[in-house]
């Protein structure tokens, strides 16, 4: 992406091709799947996305990720389990599966990672693979959340940072129940949040934002709701 600058860090944590792995990242823009995939490609890995089905309908981006064989998640439907099975099969086949645990673009007022869903943890615990946390920032300055207007100038910097595997060994071998999945998911989100705080040079909120707690719908632009949360302006 010649129209942006890249600040890639932590590539040494991405395992080599042929190693099944889950990479879990924060979601801040419909543009960030491209920066996420670019980072992983530059570190030697093709990406299979586990992403909400709505992303596949976004002009241009949707066609690109469909052609690349990504995995749509049809949330709140009978087809949702198909995505999980496809992700497990991909990891067992030695592929890298990228998952946004939040399940949607962050609705946190400051675009910090929200409470995560348990899919990434479930895939990791079933397959025994590592979860690599990845934080990203900057894509939201090119394409603001739920916006359709690209802002290419002035040239933006895309920050993507990978961290070491999330410690899950003490959870492996335990029943994969709600308690275990929540513990694993909280660790994943904490690792992503810590890396994002480093990128931004800011302190993350003490508690992660939970859209359900404020009555936001699971999908769609929260600005369409009366209790919308205002997004932050681009930082200089």
TrEMBL record:
Residues 207-236 are annotated as: Disordered. Keywords: Acyltransferase, Transferase. CDD domains: LPLAT_AGPAT-like. GO terms for cellular component: plasma membrane. GO terms for molecular function: 1-acylglycerol-3-phosphate O-acyltransferase activity. GO terms for biological process: phosphatidic acid biosynthetic process. Residues 21-139 form the Phospholipid/glycerol acyltransferase domain. This is 1-acyl-sn-glycerol-3-phosphate acyltransferase.
């Amino acid at each position: 992406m010649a129209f942006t600058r890249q600040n890639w860090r932590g590539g040494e944590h991405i395992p080599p091709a042929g190693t099944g792995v889950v990479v879990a990242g924060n979601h801040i823009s419909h543009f960030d799947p491209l920066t996420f995939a670019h980072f992983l490609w530059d570190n030697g890995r093709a990406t299979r996305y586990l992403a909400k089905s709505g992303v596949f309908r976004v002009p241009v981006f949707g066609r690109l990720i469909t052609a690349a064989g990504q995995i749509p998640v049809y949330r709140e439907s009978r087809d949702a389990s198909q995505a999980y099975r496809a992700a497990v099969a991909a990891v067992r086949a030695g592929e890298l599966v990228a998952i946004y645990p939040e399940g949607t673009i962050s609705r946190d007022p400051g675009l910090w990672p929200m409470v995560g869903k348990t899919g990434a943890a479930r895939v990791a615990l079933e397959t025994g693979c590592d979860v690599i946390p990845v934080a990203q920032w900057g894509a939201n300055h090119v394409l603001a959340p739920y916006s359709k207007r690209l802002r290419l100038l002035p040239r933006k910097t895309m920050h993507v940072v990978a961290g070491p595997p999330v410690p899950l060994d003490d959870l492996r071998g335990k029943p994969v129940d709600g308690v275990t999945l929540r513990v694993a998911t909280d660790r994943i989100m904490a690792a992503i949040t810590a890396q994002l705080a480093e990128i931004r040079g800011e302190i993350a909120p003490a508690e992660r934002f939970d859209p359900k707690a404020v009555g936001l719908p699971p999908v769609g632009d929260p600005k369409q709701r009366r209790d919308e949360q205002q997004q932050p302006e681009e930082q200089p």
